[in-house]
């Protein structure tokens, strides 16, 4: 049975693949190779397999080349889009920096104006108190003059009644009244009383006139003080609101912030000694209340300015740079800072007052400086090429603390800027944007 099937299969193969012979002739001999049907089938199948593999491999290479070209084009387009976005951000940063400089100039001008107004207000208040004191003295003089006038009138009335009584007692005497000593004494006393009365009346009129003039001048001073108060209140509002807005944007409570700074500057005679307008133990007048309220606002501005120096609001890089990576998830991991790329050796500055808690090498960060600020805030400046501060050193905002570099895990010269509150990393751009309206 199997032999029969083999014979029939051989016949079928002989029909399609007849046996062939390939002759190989040399100079001295002739040989041939017999190609049986099975051998031909194996050769044909192998040839087809090689051709098919070649076609598939070529197609795969062509498709991969096309796909790689599309990917490169897409990557190039994305790179161009990213560069355009970075350029737009750089232009926006420059415009914001110019706006911040203009705002700082306006703020400085407003503070100068407030200082001038405060001096003028204090001078006006001193002048007002002098006028009030002078008015009280004039009124006291006027009251004394009126009392003296009344006493003189009473004295004249008594003398007159005495003269009339003396005449009534001696109606029939023949003596000359002009030679009567009593009449002479009474006449002289009456003349003195009349002169004193006239003098007192003149003094009273002068005092009344001076009191009216001083009252009018006091009214003018009060009106001018009211105008100064209004301008100062407007200036206080314009100056304080941006500071409050800045700290709220930075996630800080302004009231708690002021209390903390006030406790740190509570020594008597220091720069924040409370100022008030005295009311001499009586109920405060509306002007005194407004003056004390304005002075309290001035104290708030001083506190805000002190707090602003301690909070890291300034830019750590002042030269030209590019934002190369923001805060957030990157490649599946949390990027806890803001990357600013600039040439190697670019100066790096402290963004706020504080104390250096670490200055040296740290794994991953390379050469790093850590600064502890007030209110539980810490800033970090890794990947430096050179450190210019030491641990325990106190630095101020704007002090140079190092040079930009490429140490640690870094692909190029840049600063990885971090801000942490109580150990938790936050987006540094919050503080940078918050300070744009003031600094």
Output the keywords.
439 residues; alpha+beta; Glucose Permease (Domain IIA); ten-stranded antiparallel sheet; two-stranded antiparallel ribbon
What does this structure look like?
With 439 residues, this protein is of the alpha+beta class. It has 2 domains: 108-169 and 176-310; 316-326 and 335-437, Distorted Sandwich (Glucose Permease (Domain IIA)), CATH 2.70.70.10. It contains 6 helices and 14 strands. The strands form 3 sheets. Strands 3, 6, 7, 8, 9, 10, 11, 12, 13 and 14 form a 10-stranded antiparallel beta sheet that branches. A hairpin with a 4-residue loop joins strand 1 (20-25) and strand 2. Helix 2 runs antiparallel to helix 3 (181-249), helix 3 (181-249) runs parallel beside helix 5 (286-310) and helix 4 packs across helix 5. The longest helix is centred in the N-terminal third of the chain and has 133 residues, at 37-169. The chain is rod-shaped. Mean pLDDT is 77; it is low at 270-277.
């Amino acid at each position: 049975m199997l032999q029969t099937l083999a014979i029939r299969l051989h016949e079928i193969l002989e029909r399609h693949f007849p046996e062939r012979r390939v002759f190989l002739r040399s100079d001295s001999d002739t040989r041939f190779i017999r190609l049986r049907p099975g051998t031909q089938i194996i050769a044909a199948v192998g040839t087809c397999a090689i051709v098919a593999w070649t076609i598939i491999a070529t197609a795969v290479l062509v498709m991969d080349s096309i796909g790689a070209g599309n990917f490169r084009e897409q990557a190039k387009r994305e790179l161009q889009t990213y560069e355009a976005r970075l350029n737009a951000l750089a232009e926006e940063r420059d415009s914001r920096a110019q706006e911040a400089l203009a705002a700082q100039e306006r703020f400085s001008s407003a503070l100068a104006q407030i200082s001038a107004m405060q001096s003028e207000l204090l001078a006006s208040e001193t002048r007002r108190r002098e006028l009030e004191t002078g008015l009280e003295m004039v009124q006291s003089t006027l009251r004394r003059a009126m009392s003296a006038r009344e006493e003189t009138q009473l004295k004249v009335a008594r003398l007159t009644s005495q003269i009339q009584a003396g005449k009534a007692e001696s109606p029939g005497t023949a003596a000359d009244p002009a030679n009567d000593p009593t009449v002479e004494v009474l006449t002289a006393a009456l003349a003195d009383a009349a002169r004193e009365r006239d003098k007192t009346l003149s003094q009273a009129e002068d005092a009344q006139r001076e009191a009216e003039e001083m009252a009018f001048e006091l009214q003018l001073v009060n009106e001018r003080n009211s105008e100064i108060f209004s301008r100062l209140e407007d200036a206080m509002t314009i100056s304080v609101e941006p500071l409050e807005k800045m700290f709220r944007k930075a996630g800080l409570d302004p009231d708690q912030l002021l209390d903390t700074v006030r406790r740190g500057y509570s020594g008597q005679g220091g720069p924040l000694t409370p100022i008030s307008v005295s009311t001499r133990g009586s109920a405060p007048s509306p002007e005194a209340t407004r003056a004390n309220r304005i002075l309290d606002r001035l104290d708030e501005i001083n506190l805000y300015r002190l707090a602003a120096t301690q909070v890291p609001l300034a830019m750590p890089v002042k030269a030209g740079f590019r934002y190369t990576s923001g805060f957030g998830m990157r490649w599946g991991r949390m990027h806890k800072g803001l990357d600013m790329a600039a040439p190697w050796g670019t100066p790096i500055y402290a963004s706020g007052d504080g104390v250096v808690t670490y200055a040296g090498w740290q794994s991953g960060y390379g050469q790093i400086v850590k600064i502890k600020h007030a209110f539980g805030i810490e800033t970090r400046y890794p990947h430096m090429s050179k450190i210019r501060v030491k641990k325990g050193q106190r630095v101020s905002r704007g002090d140079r603390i190092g040079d930009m570099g490429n140490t640690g895990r870094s692909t190029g010269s840049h600063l990885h800027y971090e801000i942490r509150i109580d150990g938790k990393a936050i987006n540094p751009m919050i503080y940078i944007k918050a300070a744009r309206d003031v600094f």
